[in-house]
Design brief:
about 200 residues; alpha/beta; Spore Coat Polysaccharide Biosynthesis Protein SpsA, Chain A; seven-stranded mixed β-sheet; two-stranded antiparallel ribbon; about 35% helix; about 25% strand
Length: about 200
Amino acid sequence: MDALIMAGGRGTRLKLDVEKPLLEFEGRPLVEHVLTALQGARSIERIFAATTAHTPGTAQLLKRLGVEVVHTPGRGYVADLRYAVEALELGVVMVVVSDLPLLRTQEIEEVAREYRRRGSAALATMVPLEVFHRYGLTPTLVIRNHVPAGVNIINARRLDGKEENYITENIRLAVNVNSLEDLRKAEEIRRILNADK
């Protein structure tokens, strides 16, 4: 399968003069952590990224790192995702948001395995709300006591097909950065995870 990094959001909640995908976590941009996780995955054949007029610096960085970038209209996540998938003529694609700093190759492979096992047209990764409470995280969207994790798989040729949810308590899939407080929490959780090794 291919992978598509969604890296076009404004990042208005950060209240900083920096593109959100370029915000640094442990010395590297957020989007670079996501790219590294994808590059190590055997399940991923090609990696693309979707950017907008709000993220020109992100587009430049990803191109320098060898990623093919598609410039989308910036009309919102779903509209830009659809635009990118059509423009790139993708089939089965793992869609990953650009602000998951704790994501590793293991999580990419975990979601890919689950997709293959189920055989559904689409797979949405969800984390139980209680995991967010346990770590003191604030979710941006809650759906029936679960929070979308920002790692999903779709078959672009079967967009009207059945979507299933993959529920996981993996904290690495729960930590996305929308604010400076989220960035601080990510650093704190990274320390906890490192201490548990």
